[in-house]
Amino acid sequence: MTGRPALAYLTGMATAQDGSGHKQIASNRKAWHEYSVLDKVEAGLVLVGTEVKSLRAGRVNFLDAFVSIKDREAWLVKLHISPYDFGNRMNHDPLRRRKLLLHDYEILKLEQKVKEKGLTIVPLSLYFSRGRVKVEIGLCKGKKLYDKRETLAKKDARRDLERSLKGG
Fold first, then answer.
1. Which of these CATH numbers, 2.40.280.10, 2.40.420.20, 1.10.8.60, 3.10.450.50, describes 9-143?
2. How confident is the model at residue 20 (pLDDT cuts 50, 70, 90)?
3. What are 113-166's pLDDT values in tens digits?
4. Strand ranges (DSSP E) for 12-91?
5. CA 45, CA 144: separation in Å to the nearest integer?
6. CA distances from residue 79 to 24, 62, 123, 166 in whole angstroms, order as listed
7. Which of 115, 127, 131, 155 could form a disulfide with 22 if both were Cys (CB 3.0 to 4.6 A apart)?
């Protein structure tokens, strides 16, 4: 038990830097640049075995991924999970639609906001939580070019301020 926190040793879960018990797989950084995130929701993901093994290796791409809602079910579309190297004939289709596990009221709320305000639902991050793959999805509004420039200017100003404070 040397070198490990007692709680993590007893529960057997992966500990992250933030202490939340989540092990980050991948993050969709481009979504934060392209969209303003208005609301976030955690959802489970229905996967097959080779997809989970590929996710453990970190082989995922968010490039054009989005969430669509059909017949009161939420689906994650165009999330590319690379085929598992040792999966042979039992491998999965990399771009297949994957069902999201959400409560009915969460799906209805998201569906209403998407229809009424013209928003979109985008995956923000993938992580393991207690051995299960979770996806954090965000209700997003597209940014205009001037909004992106404003965000970059604020980030640069904050970075310059931190440098000046750190430097003396």
1. 2.40.280.10
2. low
3. 998 887 899 999 999 998 899 999 999 988 887 778 888 899 899 999 999 988
4. 22-27, 35-45, 60-61, 66-70, 73-77, 80-81
5. 31
6. 16, 5, 9, 40
7. 127
